[in-house]
Amino acid sequence: MPTFRVWAPERRQGALDLGDQRLPMRRHDGGWWTIDAEAVPGADYAYRLDGGPPRPDPRSPWQPAGVHGPSRLLDHGMFVWSDRDWRPPPLASGVLYELHIGTFTVAGTFDAAIDKLAHLADLGITHVELMPVQEFSGARGWGYDGVDLYAPHHAYGGPDGLKRLVDAAHGCGLAVVLDVVYNHLGPTGNYLGEFGPYFTDRYGSPWGPAVNFDGPGSDEVRRFVCDNALMWLRDYHLDALRIDAVHALIDLSAVHILEQLAEEVEQLGRVLGRRLTLIAESDLNDPRLVRPRRLGGYGIDAQWSDDVHHALHALLTGERDGYYADFGSIADVATALRDAYVYAGRYSAFRGRRHGRAPTGLPGDAFVAFLQNHDQIGNRARGERSTHLMSPRRAMIGAALVLTAPFVPLLFQGEEWGASTPFQYFTGHEDAELGERVRIGRREEFARFDWSPDDVPDPQDEATFLRSKLDWNETAQPGHRELLDWHRALIALRRQTSELLDGRREAVCTRYDEAAQWLVVERGSMAIAVNFADRRQAVPLTGAALEVVLSSAAGASLDAHGITLGPESAAILRLR
Amino acid sequence: MPTFRVWAPERRQGALDLGDQRLPMRRHDGGWWTIDAEAVPGADYAYRLDGGPPRPDPRSPWQPAGVHGPSRLLDHGMFVWSDRDWRPPPLASGVLYELHIGTFTVAGTFDAAIDKLAHLADLGITHVELMPVQEFSGARGWGYDGVDLYAPHHAYGGPDGLKRLVDAAHGCGLAVVLDVVYNHLGPTGNYLGEFGPYFTDRYGSPWGPAVNFDGPGSDEVRRFVCDNALMWLRDYHLDALRIDAVHALIDLSAVHILEQLAEEVEQLGRVLGRRLTLIAESDLNDPRLVRPRRLGGYGIDAQWSDDVHHALHALLTGERDGYYADFGSIADVATALRDAYVYAGRYSAFRGRRHGRAPTGLPGDAFVAFLQNHDQIGNRARGERSTHLMSPRRAMIGAALVLTAPFVPLLFQGEEWGASTPFQYFTGHEDAELGERVRIGRREEFARFDWSPDDVPDPQDEATFLRSKLDWNETAQPGHRELLDWHRALIALRRQTSELLDGRREAVCTRYDEAAQWLVVERGSMAIAVNFADRRQAVPLTGAALEVVLSSAAGASLDAHGITLGPESAAILRLR
Fold it and tell me: Which residues pair with A15 in a beta bridge?
């Protein structure tokens, strides 16, 4: 007989709705309510507090009817896994691939994604990273507005769908990373505040009330978050979590929630006998996040490096709007490719203050680097990818620099073939008023950048969602196919070349000429030579190179002084 | 010709009022305005922004006419110091004495305090700690409402008065610590916001807008704070700063303002050739504050330990209101006397969450411990001291435990003789409306604890201030004189006993019997034995003691099993 448990410390009455029954719950110390009730997996239930309306379980494992509907009982022990001997590849030698279940395939489900795993394995990917799948309002959305943080989205295929995907990925040798959002909850279906002090008004977040990590009652809020992370790793066999926007997790207590989380995840890994990994998105350029705990860090394994993206994007596209104003030189790219942080104490005009600190002692694999990701694409007015903003030749340069960097590279779905489809901001809010607010908000946001309202896609329009789905036919088409081959070759080279997997940032040596527009990145006996100029030119090397291993364009030629590269091209060389 | 400089980055016009002249200032990069003008030390000046009213210099060195008046030009080079060979005693072997200039003497000035330095030196004090002296509104107040953070209060004697006090203290072998408040500014005379983005509404503080340490423009705000600290240490020859309520300094940037401050102070110390010290008040129980920077800490030298106070106060007085509810057992006192943090991850009912973390590896001298301080006395409705709340015998126990602890002990003015005068909350707000708000606020605060309004002293009433002044005649009076002798004897013993100055907390061994009400603290070959019970009893020792070195009451007797102590008494023993 399962025990139903819910935390509601300030409530005087708790009841369980189960089928036609309404069962009174018993209060325990610490504000927990429980009841043992006859129920089998698949039974629907809800909680009522102080005689109020039925609400989903804050830890609901499944919301088959969406965020307002009942929760459904689940027994994780019933799924038959086939990944018994699975051991994930280390992140340090990995290549990540970020995808969004709803737009990755026509069907937009976990099961449909399984069909594409062979493509990813063939490309050389090691880790598939899923954008958030936690139940959010509506049938489509990016997922950052999740409210039932323990429940895989019903429209994607629910709990069993996710398990089938993870199991199949493991079967293909692919690890799976899940994006988790602990800095806020979505605006619709968020009933947590009725249950307990999950939120605080002592701090704000850009997306609504901040989560209460350090005020009264925060012990259980922290458990809610940590238990959630442990659940995904244990019950769904996930290999890693990508924690969204950790700069918005405000916790001034003596043990930061991320440190607690990292410690608990490490312990679970020991119990499960497999390495579990935490990756954080952070805009703080603060090494503390990824430093070992014995040195005062939080012990997160790796963090996304926006600076690498911004430096590459600004240089390759020439864009200087918004935060790109802080970037644009080859010098910034050279710094980014060694230090991950371009801003390590330097003044940032965009931020109006000095930003970051030196990542002293941190290995390259403490950083995830990318030429694009869902945010950098989708937060543009029209969701343009890199390949829509730069020449194919420059896109090949970008790929070469990311995939030979001392960091863990990440691709965004379709990047490998330069998908022509955009990745736009789409929502499916059931609440019409909220939908309208989001539509207007989006227009106003881009009006600041002189976008006409008519040119900003309507997030609520289903066409915006459908337009963002990948067109897999492109992978075989001219232009796309060559870029796909380039990515495949770069990834293969990376994975078989120890110099490229060497995480010692201090061993990275860069030389460049800002005026002549070339850059050389030396990594042990390998070098990446790039000509950003639109004319053929000689790029000097410090010694004679042995051979050109890969080249983004024909016509690269070696001589005693260096390499001559065609316009806007990159070559990877063996030096000795 | 001096250069006048002020930072006002968002202003379009800056002017200097100097005598009868109004001189236009020139704007420079970064939002600084300057002008070179003929002026001699002693000249009064003010700034006008965008044609507005005259305002004091945010970095005014002297406000002879109060917070709204003009600033006065000062040349720090003109004071003749006599402390050329001064080297401060190390904090680790120090005994601190906190005092409030306005109530320490009848005259309430820096100069009057000089007359009492001999008393402090005779008592064995090594460091005199001044409650804040920065210019605040009115002629009397605790000082935490300072607004001209670079200016010693005019009513205390201004810049030269403070220098004379510091110089005289050094002449008596006493170091001087100054309390600095960087978490908020006072409500009256705070014109900083007119000059620049000194404040932020992204976070709150209990006392008004939070200081902007990590938002746009924060580089200069941080300079304002760091330059202030450096100024006190350099120009006023102060030996240490006590940083008020650092838990209210919210800074999520990669380099916390306290870390920056600690690093700059350390550098200044190297330049000056004398050791400079930073002490922080913190209620976070977070070892990061006092850990070395190489281990991810901020590198502050020591922090106040409220837990030691709360544990002792709750046990000795029996009070259990408010935060004392979390304390009260002998076990808590035993934990406090070894770990400084009683709450090192344990659940705090008062806070409604787990609190703190283990101070692993931190030495005892990273903590300042006290039986009372200005806050613990003055934030009570009637400002009662420990000696008003416990028997003289228990007060002697408290003194023995604080002055033999592995921490840096601190006394509050008059504690050494059990002053009969209270230390009440007093203000002298010139703004009548604000004064009334403070008066009502104070009454309402204590109404929660069932205090009748008539029993709460009126903070604005000058009598409240006068009542809080020490009565030095008491030092020679019976009862008081004995307590003074007890403190003097304990301090002398501490300073000449290496075991008591041993900062290794792990060498502290405690044994106690909660029911029988005794406690033994062993520190190497020394032991402190305490009988909290109001009956004579035998307290067992692990070995035979050699001798009773000090005893708070007659009649302590050793035998082979331990020591027999009179009711509510303490003895300090040599064990071997």
Answer: A24, A48
Using CA atoms, how far apart are residues B429 and B426, in angstroms rounded to an integer? 10
Can you give the pLDDT at residue A454? Answer: 80
CA distance B12 to chain A (A): 18
Cα–Cα distance between B2 and B34 in angstroms, integer?
A: 10
Q: Which residues of chain A have pLDDT under 50?
A: none
Sequence length of chain A is 576
**Chain A interface, Cβ < 8 Å to B:** 202-204, 214-219, 247, 250, 252-255, 284-288, 291, 295-297, 345, 347, 351-357
Cα dihedral across residues B283, B286, B291, B297: positive or negative: negative
3-state helix, strand, coil in chain A (%, to 5): 35, 25, 45
In this predicted structure, what is the pLDDT of residue B480?
97
pLDDT at B338 (0 to 100): 97
Mean predicted confidence (pLDDT) in B171-191: 96
Interchain contact, A254 vs B203, CB within 8 Å: no
Give the active site residue among B179, B281, B326, B522: B281
Determine, for residues B254 and A284 on separate chains, whether the beta-carbon distance falls below 8 Å: yes
User: Which chain B residues contact residue A354 at CB under 8 A?
Assistant: 219
Point out the catalytic residue in the list A129, A281, A283, A301.
A281
**Contact criterion met (CB < 8 Å) for B250 and A253:** no
H-helix segments, A24-154: 101-104, 110-114, 117-123
Q: Cβ contact (<8 Å) for A219 and B353?
A: yes
Q: What residues does each domain of chain A span? A: 91-496, 508-574
> What confidence tens digit (pLDDT) does each residue in B37-82 have?
999 999 999 999 999 999 999 999 999 999 999 999 999 999 999 9
User: Is there a contact between B410 and B418 (Cβ–Cβ < 8 Å)?
Assistant: no
CATH superfamily of A91-496: Glycosidases (3.20.20.80)
CA dihedral A221, A223, A228, A229 (to 10 degrees): 120
Residue A281 designated active-site: yes
Q: Indicate if B508-574 has the same CATH topology as B3-78.
A: yes
ipTM of the shown complex: 0.94
Rg (CA), chain A: 25
Residue of B nearest to A212 (CA): B353
CATH tag for A508-574 (out of 2.40.30.10, 2.60.40.1180, 2.60.40.3080, 3.20.20.140)? 2.60.40.1180
B307 is catalytic: no
Question: Quick check: B214 pLDDT over 90?
Answer: yes
Query: Contact at 8 Å (CB) between A95 and A124?
Result: yes
Please state which CATH number belongs to domain B3-78: 2.60.40.10
pTM for this entry: 0.95
Tell me the pLDDT band of B453, cut-offs 50, 70 and 90: confident
What mean pLDDT comes out for the span B375-384?
A: 93
pLDDT digits (tens, 9 = 90+) for B344-358: 999 999 999 999 999
What's the pLDDT band for B201 if we cut at 50, 70, 90? Answer: confident
